[in-house]
Amino acid sequence: MENLKSFDIRTVLPETLKNIEDVVIDTNLSVEERMRAFVKQIKNPYCFRCGKLVVQVEYKESGKSINECLKEYIESQLS
Fold this sequence. Notes:
A hairpin with a 2-residue loop joins strand 1 and strand 2. It is globular and about 40 Å long. The protein is 37% helix and 10% strand. The protein is α+β, with helices and mostly antiparallel strands and 79 residues long. The protein has helices at 2-5, 31-42, 66-78; strands at 47-50, 53-56. The longest helix has 13 residues, at 66-78. The protein starts with a helix and ends with a helix.
């Protein structure tokens, strides 16, 4: 997995990336099995496409979750 992090997004050819819109996950699977299914389908969880947009993701083992960050952002926009 470490080698999947090492890339320059400016040099990535979008057509070589998997589209997250094509990923289908069985919600009846355990969390661990869903994570495996996601990685198996997306190939690189650090760089993929969402439609025509290239997405680069960085994961942290600690700190705020994406849900917490999005909640804070939305609340700040409503204030």
